[in-house]
Give the backbone structure.
Amino acid sequence: MRMSDIPFGTTDWSAIPETRHAGDAGEALWRTQVFGPEDNRIRVRMVEYTPGYVSDHWCEKGHILLCLEGEMETTLADGRVFLLRPGVSYQVADGAEPHRSVSPKGAKLFIVD
């Protein structure tokens, strides 16, 4: 990731329209901003998982993810499981380790990818 051609700015996340993404159970509610030039877009999201959320796919996209509220459990394809609580983050590269998340209690996340 190259952070270039991004002028200083602030984001009022409450003003960003929400999009709904169904999981196998529950929903992920995304507020999304995209920054940078066309050939190097950086997506920044505030994501809320509803209680009982279960991802509908194994993700291979790289992310930097910070848990702001609630709890989220991420399982890697090799079987390792990680619990994220407020103040805990993870990072993974594109194509490095497929991962899938569930959130029995719900969670609010800040994600850069």
